[in-house]
Design brief:
single chain; 336 residues; alpha/beta; Rossmann fold; 4-stranded antiparallel beta sheet
């Protein structure tokens, strides 16, 4: 990380600040049962501004979901700091973290697996309210559940039905209602539209933006669809093999991508206009993502980068601001 890291992380408007986050999973390999570490997340730093959305994009295996799980403390990071509203989440005890669960929520990718099929929809939404003792009394809980269902575009009588009676998009709305019922200020959205039809995706994204404006929510939006991430996010981080390659505001990233990996991702994303789509140049990456057990020396992307040279293969690039809060980790771009 560059020496300007403290400037990058010092804005008081940030609801969350992440410094040099690492999540390594120990595994054993070989006949000798040697213990090695899978570097799922390896030195990630970023800010999340209050009331805004940070998008995180990258190929499968880049570490996006692991970052999300660390942010809400489903996983305890190997090292680094996660400061949420002035409190470092890595230093708090289980009792305090239990209270924080009301404020820090997550909506997962699969609406079919995230809801308990044995519970009615009302019980699914009310479970958190009962656990955290937010509301007492059957009538009060039913009123809150009904109000949450209406907020996500469902009828109140859905509370008496079971999850299997609903479509995928409706189930995702129920998952959203369950999350906002606890009145959180921060939600990690992990691929929440990837399992849905395109028309339903647009409805869910519109709902999330509406709730963000009405409730003052802050999101981390993890996804692989670049157009969706751009639409909902103010800032976007591009991850590759556990590291952030590029980070800036969404328009700047998509209009002026600097890192070769970002350029390749954007060139592969479909464009609605067929004339423009046929005319643009596509960047084809060779090979597969290296194993996080044994990442390449130097730049993580050097094995697939069309511009990689000897320096890239030997020296890890610093993550630096090249101007206008546009952060890039690339020797070719920064010259450092």
């Amino acid at each position: 990380m560059s020496e300007n890291k403290d400037v990058f992380l010092s804005n008081l408007d940030n609801i969350m600040t992440v410094r040099d986050l690492k999540m390594h999973f120990p595994i054993t390999r070989g006949l000798l049962k040697r213990t090695v570490g899978v570097k799922a997340v390896d030195g990630v730093s970023f800010n999340i501004k209050r009331g805004q959305t940070l998008g995180i994009v990258g190929e499968s295996g880049s570490g996006k979901t692991t970052v999300g799980n660390c942010l809400i403390r489903r996983l305890t990071p190997t090292s680094g700091d996660i400061v949420f509203e002035g409190t470092d989440l890595r230093d708090i005890d289980k009792k305090t973290m239990r209270r924080m669960r009301r404020t820090v929520q997550m909506i997962t990718q699969d609406p079919f697996a995230s809801l308990d099929p044995r519970f009615t929809v009302g019980d699914c939404i009310a479970e958190g309210l009962r656990i955290h003792h937010m509301i007492s009394g059957k009538e009060a809980i039913e009123e809150r559940v009904g109000h949450m269902l209406e907020m996500v575009g469902l009828r109140r009588d859905a509370a008496s039905r079971y999850p299997h009676e609903f479509s995928g998009g409706q189930r995702q709305r129920i998952s959203i209602a369950r999350s906002i019922a606890l009145q959180p200020s921060f939600i990690v959205c992990d691929e929440i539209v990837s399992a849905l039809d395109v028309s339903i995706q647009a409805q869910i994204i519109a709902l999330m933006m509406k709730l963000q404006e009405e409730l003052g929510l802050t999101y981390v939006f993890i996804g692989h669809d670049l157009s969706v991430v751009r639409f909902i996010s103010q800032n976007v981080a591009v991850m590759y093999l556990g590291k952030i390659m590029e980070l800036t505001n969404s328009d700047e990233l998509y209009d002026h991508p600097l890192h070769p990996y970002t350029q390749a991702l954007i060139s592969a994303a479909p464009i609605p206009d067929p004339i423009v789509d046929r005319a643009r140049e596509r960047i084809l990456l060779k090979g597969e993502i290296p194993s996080p057990i044994d990442p390449p020396k130097g730049c993580n992307f050097c094995t697939r980068c069309p511009y990689a040279d000897d320096r890239c293969r030997e020296e890890e690039p610093a993550f630096v601001d090249v101007g206008g809060d546009h952060f890039v980790a690339c020797h070719r771009v920064t010259g450092k």
